[in-house]
């Protein structure tokens, strides 16, 4: 299994297999079995899933954690270690990785300001950000906004009952 989906090649995600546009033009990702919201709630409730708990986090520290196996993001004043959450993110790993090691607040609001991240990421809290936000790199451009990777067919044409038929 590749790190972003069904491909064995970890470099290129396979959007035509793992994502599709809804009728409203939003990217949906097919989460793997056992990686839904209820599963996340089960593994994260009353746990600490952050690699560290710090009294405060500087920009220099946050920037270091920008990899898929060590991914911290700043969200509205607090830093979260979302490494364990990545596979459960309904928008997909690459979307969330755009903000790895930086301030995710604007992107987060842009996509889903209504999502209750405070509750969902309780287990992932590292600590309050006490650094200079201007030292942080900007979030990466949207991978799925890249026209060469953009799926152009609606989800209904990708997943039909035939997809589950035995041949
Ligand atoms: C900051 C970088 C992030 C980006 C670029 C991003 C992007 C996206 C995208 C493209 C979707 C699919 C939109 C759709 O449902 O049609 C999505 C869904 C979602 N994301 Fe994120 N996301 C980010 C961070 C987060 C974080 C930190 C959380 C916190 C728990 C989160 C939770 C969710 C949830 C719950 C959904 C499903 C929303 C729904 O179905 O209405 N995301 N995200």
TrEMBL record:
InterPro entries: Cyt_B5-like_heme/steroid-bd, Cyt_B5-like_heme/steroid_sf, Cyt_B5_heme-BS, Cytochrome_b5/Flavoprotein_Rdt. SUPFAM superfamilies: Cytochrome b5-like heme/steroid binding domain. Residues 54-130 form the Cytochrome b5 heme-binding domain. GO terms for biological process: superoxide metabolic process. GO terms for cellular component: endoplasmic reticulum. One of its GO terms (molecular function) is metal ion binding. Keywords: Heme, Iron, Metal-binding. It comes from the Eukaryota. SMART domains: Cyt-b5 (SM01117). The keyword Ubl conjugation does not apply. Transmembrane segments: none annotated. PANTHER family: CYTOCHROME B5 REDUCTASE 4, CYTOCHROME B5 REDUCTASE 4 FAMILY MEMBER. Belongs to the cytochrome b5 family. This is Cytochrome b5 heme-binding domain-containing protein. It comes from Panagrolaimus davidi.
